[in-house]
Specification:
heterodimer, A: mainly alpha, Multidrug efflux transporter AcrB transmembrane fold, 2 domains, 8 helices, B: Multidrug efflux transporter AcrB transmembrane fold, 5-stranded mixed barrel, 5 strands, globular, membrane (chain A), YibE_F (chain A), transmembrane helix (chain A), YibE/F-like protein (chain A)
């Protein structure tokens, strides 16, 4: 049997045992997200489609699946959703400039052997694709951080309805700071794990320090790590501000 | 009302000053470090388009190829100050080529007889440093002390990893997995102590992380063994200079470590918090709350790994599709390794939830027995 099938079955069974109904939902969400990703890539094949807008739409779907499908629609998931989207917009603005300037798009010289059989004149703008890849790598972590902030903030407001907007905002920032370390760690190690082969390759072929830091593949991966870290940090004030504004200012008006 | 500066202590002001000074210093350095490179660097001073052709490849993909004539000034070496001519070709898709504008800096090889150059690579160090600084500044601005700690922990972990790989490459008789195992213990202890300080929560999280990683490794091994690794396309792993299977397993171990640590510390912190609020709380309630917290985090945590791994394959997938490769073939060629990593990492995340609950309960019981 196929390894992937076996691993999927093991993951499904474990999620169902540990998480019950919610575990099953989380597993289905993973598959739906995979579907969204594949469809996005297929649509990106159309040379007239703009990969950046496509990625934003895809990220909206992915966040919606991770937040609304697993947790239902409520104030904490809605706030997490909008803070994710706003963070992505800010990040995109920055990433597009950086990918264009640093020319990290497409494939590096290290991959030339693999590319020999392919036609590279395929009419898709790889600069935009590179920006999309960086955003896509980060979306999971940004959604996770957003919900980890909005959810306890709602609890605080619930137990403390008279709390001022500023205090609630600061509480959100404090929660965010506590999870910042672990969230960034999750991403760092995920990327380190993925780049193991590349790191060994650099060392085996005794690349010099200057060759490594100017290599396209290395710059690409470092910029991805740094941008991902920035995304996780940026979503903290955004989610705290939005949730405190929504719960206190709008919540009080409703009353 | 006090101004912002008056509110800061001397020590804080000193730290801000230090950060700003090293920021400015390093940015200036990478923009004027040409003398430190052996390879000639040239700065583009002019670029004119000389030809633009529409192309259609064998799969009916439309693209354009553009030829540009570049004049550039050499910034270092024996030709310093000379002007060279470069012919550069690029395509509309930029998959393996670059369009240059005045101001860009490139590594070149120079033909001394004709004073023409060939572009070898782009000088990317200045952008790398800039992004690294932005990362540090954003993390410090948002996270203050915790932000600083996560920057330090990234740096320390990167150094350990690089050091561990050096040891592996110098002593190839030691298995990469053993070296990774030792590094994982170091990563876990250092990262968790830095993020959370020395206390029982951290010890619990360290033990849970190590047990979680070990059990997910065993399950992954077992699955690979039972299936005879059918469906894993090692041949499509990029940048291979070693046995792909070892590189894959080592990457899998280290890749899921961060997520497993995250789960372990979240679980142990919340369970210990419940215990501290109410020392008499019974174990069943603790277990039930633990499971509830676990349910909340497992979906988003598995998602983090999934997207961090799979997104990197997008450019290659597009290339395959545009070269008329069939869907199933393309997906299995390019995604099997990443998917296997994401699934194994997911298994680690889910397994760590009960492991962390029982480890926390074990420590709590020991604490109770002592008092």
């Amino acid at each position: 049997m196929n390894v992937l099938v076996v691993l999927s079955i093991i993951l499904f069974v474990l999620m169902a045992i540990v998480g019950g109904k919610k575990g099953v939902k989380s597993f289905i969400a993973l598959f739906l997200n995979f579907g969204v990703l594949i469809i996005t890539i297929l649509v990106m094949n159309d040379p007239n489609a703009n990969p950046i807008w496509l990625t934003l739409v895809a990220c909206a779907f992915i966040s919606a699946i991770s937040l609304f499908y697993i947790n239902d629609v409520n104030s904490k998931t809605t706030m997490a959703f909008f803070s994710t989207i706003i963070t992505l917009l800010i990040l995109f603005f920055f990433i597009i400039i950086i990918t264009e300037k640093s020319m990290i798009q497409g494939f590096g010289a290290e991959e030339s052997e693999e590319l020999m059989t392919f036609s590279l004149f395929i009419g898709i703008d790889f600069i935009k694709v590179a920006a999309s890849v960086i955003i896509m790598s980060t979306i999971g972590a940004i959604v996770d951080t957003a919900i980890s902030i909005t959810s306890p903030m709602r609890e605080i407001h619930h137990h403390n309805p008279m709390i001022t907007r500023k205090d609630l905002f600061l509480a959100g920032i404090r929660i965010g700071r506590d999870i910042l370390g672990t969230s960034t760690n999750t991403l760092f190690f995920a990327f380190f794990g993925g780049y193991m082969g590349l790191l060994i390759w650099f060392k085996d072929l005794s690349y010099s320090f200057s060759e490594i830091i100017n290599a396209k593949v290395f710059s690409d991966e470092m910029i991805t790590i740094f941008t991902a870290g920035m995304g996780v940090a940026l979503v903290i004030p955004i989610a705290s501000w939005m949730t405190s504004y929504y719960l206190v200012t709008i919540g009080n008006k409703k009353k | 009302m006090k101004t912002w500066i008056q509110k800061q202590t001397k020590k804080q002001l000193f730290i801000y000053f230090l950060i700003v000074a090293s920021f400015i210093g390093s940015i200036i350095f990478v923009n004027y470090n040409h003398a430190f490179y052996d390879q000639p660097i040239a700065k583009v001073t002019g670029a004119t388009e000389t030809d633009r052709t529409e192309t259609v490849d064998q799969h009916q993909n439309q693209d354009i190829t553009v030829t540009q004539q570049i004049t550039a000034t050499v910034k270092n070496g024996s030709y310093k100050g000379e002007t060279i001519d470069i012919t550069n070709e690029y395509s509309g898709s930029h998959a393996y080529d670059h369009a240059f504008q005045p101001g860009d800096e490139v590594f070149v090889t120079i033909d001394d007889s004709t004073f023409t150059g060939t572009i070898e690579n782009v000088k990317r160090d200045k952008y790398l440093i800039l992004v690294a600084w932005l990362f540090i500044i954003v993390l410090l601005a948002v996270g203050k002390k915790q932000g600083l700690l996560s920057v330090i922990s990234l740096a320390v972990n990167a150094v350990i990893l690089s050091f561990a790989l050096d040891i592996y490459l110098q002593n190839s008789d030691i298995s990469l997995l053993i070296i990774c195992g030792i590094s994982i213990v170091l990563f876990t202890v250092i990262s968790l102590l830095m993020v959370n300080g020395m206390n029982e929560k951290t010890y619990t999280a360290i033990i849970a992380t190590l047990l979680g990683t070990l059990s997910s490794l065993l399950i992954a091994y077992l699955a690979l063994f039972v299936t005879g690794e059918q469906g894993l396309r090692y041949e499509e792993m990029s940048f291979l200079s070693r046995n792909p299977q070892t590189v894959f397993m080592a990457g899998l171990l280290i890749g899921s470590l961060g997520a497993v640590m995250d789960v372990a510390i979240t679980m142990s912190s919340s369970i210990f918090e419940l215990y501290e609020k109410n020392n008499q709380i019974n174990l069943k309630t603790l277990k039930a709350s633990g499971i509830d917290i676990g349910k909340d985090i497992m979906g988003t945590m598995t998602n983090i790994l999934f997207f961090a791994y799979v997104s990197g394959s997008i450019p290659m997938l597009l290339l395959y599709f545009k070269n008329a490769s069939p869907l199933g073939f393309t997906l299995s060629m390019n995604l099997s390794i990443e998917l296997a990593r994401a699934l194994a990492g997911g298994i680690g995340i889910v397994l760590t939830i009960p492991i962390a609950i029982y480890t926390s309960i074990f420590f709590i019981q020991r604490k109770r027995a002592r008092t």
